[in-house]
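Why predict the complex rather than its parts? Because the way molecules touch one another can change local conformation, and only a joint prediction can capture that. The input here totals 340 residues.
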Amino acid sequence: MSAVAGETRAATDVLVEVRGLVKHFPLPARGVPGRRRHEVVHALNGVDLDVRRGEFIALVGESGSGKTTLANCIAGFLDPTAGAIRLDGSPLVEAREGRRRVSRHVSRRALARDVQMIFQDPSSALNPRQTIASALLEPLLVHKVLDKRAAQTRVRELLSLTGIPATMGGRYPHELNSGQRQRAVIARALALNPRLIVADEAVSRLDVSMQSQILNLLLDLHRDLGLTIVFITHDLSVVRQVADSVVVMYLGRIMEACAADVFFAQPSHPYSNALIASTPRMLREDEQLQTLEGEIPSPVRPPSGCPFHTRCPLAEERCTEAVPPLEDVAPGHRVACIKA
Ligand SMILES: Nc1ncnc2c1ncn2[C@@H]1O[C@H](COP(=O)(O)OP(=O)(O)O)[C@@H](O)[C@H]1O
Ligand SMILES: [Mg+2]
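Output of the joint prediction:
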């Protein structure tokens, strides 16, 4: 390794750099009465995010805030409309609004070695006709990283790493319970030693005891392997158990980003406050559960100014005028609110 490369590596602890990410989904105009042509869903509206190496970062926000879209852009399943994503300093994808061509610097297949996603439903992620062991073997053989013998050793290692008894390797997904299936999905995600795991609502369908087992597994992997994890959830009570830092999204924008302990002790954005106050398991005994008033506005026609102003208890006239920039209120604490 050259001295220069060594320096570059030491100079940054950022693994994933997302800059100005925009994702629009054009809506088909035909056949929908009253729908204007060229209407688009504004799923992401300029997201800037750094994921540090070894960080366990939680992406939160109500359904429809753009979390999955952001994850899919990072994992290469979706091309952004505008913006750029870098992994370990190297460009993955760049897009400019108005230009048709998206520059993808790394193929989806190559990216799969570095970035792996875990989804909500483990059943759909596993082939029902494939045993767990062969599901783990497959990526190793497809990517030709190990010969068959070494791959089989690796499969045993993956089973043990994720707490699946070796005897279960020969079983089919339907012979496992939902927690064991999610372990198998995690084991497969780890097969190629990815640098980043994106877990999208990975524990949302599990019951509470199974949830905490899978959360503990992710925490162990994070600690023992130094794994970087982007953990997506709409459930804040889960975040408190696992995350180093929290990123709050609303209508395709980041509203607040900070360390998890700061977030729970002193949330600065009114939306963060509302989210915490509306999560039953987040409250102290003397606190009352409050529902988040109103609906999320349509991302087809998002509100002017701050996207949260239509539901914000602190909103004033100037909140409707310009989108508040995401600014540092303290080191490592960014908030997009003119009143923060
Ligand atoms: N393929 C798609 N086509 C059209 N709209 C989409 C598509 N995928 C997501 N959206 C819309 O983009 C917005 C953000 O969705 P999503 O990223 O799934 O949010 P979240 O994961 O936070 O619930 C939503 O309004 C959703 O309906
Ligand atoms: Mg989602």
